[in-house]
């Protein structure tokens, strides 16, 4: 009887944690930027990471310009424009090539 109640409580706990995990926003620790790649990425080899490091001027969703550092698993093409999503740990999550980077705001 006690094992059955304990098993039921454990199953309820697991189900609750799964629901909470899937209902939380995935990109809460990531930011979106618009960038024109001006420099080739510097090759980086760290433990459990091999890719390229970039230091570029970007526009955020509000049109404010800022310089950011980010790392990508793949080399982004020089002189191409991208919409990128970068996590707080500076890893590139997504890069989509676009035709035009939005203009900076006059703020």
Task: Please tell me about this protein's structure.
The longest helix is centred in the N-terminal third of the chain and has 22 residues, at 2-23. The chain starts with a helix and ends in a 9-residue tail after the last strand. A hairpin with a 2-residue loop joins β2 (42-46) and β3. Strands 1, 2, 3, 4, 5 and 6 form a 6-stranded antiparallel β-sheet that branches. The radius of gyration is 20 Å and the shape is elongated. 21% of the residues lie in helices and 43% in strands. The chain has a domain at 28-98: OB fold (Dihydrolipoamide Acetyltransferase, E2P). The protein has 107 residues and is of the alpha+beta class. The protein has 1 helix and 6 strands; from the N terminus they run αββββββ. It has one helix at 2-23; strands at 30-36, 42-46, 49-60, 65-72, 81-87, 92-98. It holds the Pfam family DUF1093. InterPro entries: DUF1093, YxeA-like_sf.
Brief summary:
With 107 residues, the protein is of the alpha+beta class.
Which characteristics define this entry?
107 residues, alpha+beta, OB fold (Dihydrolipoamide Acetyltransferase, E2P), six-stranded antiparallel β-sheet
Query: Roughly what percent helix?
Result: 10-25%
Give me the secondary-structure category. Answer: alpha+beta
Average residue-wise pLDDT: 85
Number of helices: 1
Shape: elongated
At the fourth level of CATH, the homologous superfamily of the domain at 28-98 is: Protein of unknown function DUF1093
Can you tell me the CATH architecture of the domain at 28-98? Beta Barrel
Beta strands, count = 6
Order of helices and strands: HEEEEEE
Low-confidence blocks of residues: none
* Rg, nearest Å: 20 Å
State the CATH class of the domain at 28-98.
Mainly Beta
Strand content: 35-45%
The CATH topology of the domain at 28-98 turns out to be: OB fold (Dihydrolipoamide Acetyltransferase, E2P)
Terminal CA distance reads: 67 Å
Largest sheet: 6 strands, antiparallel
Protein name: YxeA family protein
Pfam families: DUF1093
InterPro entries: DUF1093, YxeA-like_sf
Organism: Listeria seeligeri
């Amino acid at each position: 009887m006690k094992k059955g109640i304990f098993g039921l409580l454990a199953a309820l706990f697991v189900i609750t944690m799964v629901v909470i995990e899937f209902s939380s926003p995935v990109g809460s620790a990531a930011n979106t930027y618009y960038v024109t790649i001006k420099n080739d990425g510097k090759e980086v080899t760290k433990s459990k990471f091999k890719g390229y490091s970039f230091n570029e001027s970007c526009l955020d969703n509000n049109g404010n310009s800022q310089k950011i550092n980010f790392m990508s698993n793949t080399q982004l093409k020089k002189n191409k424009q991208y919409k990128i999503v970068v996590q707080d740990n500076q890893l590139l999550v997504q890069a989509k090539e676009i035709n035009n980077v939005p203009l900076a705001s006059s703020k």
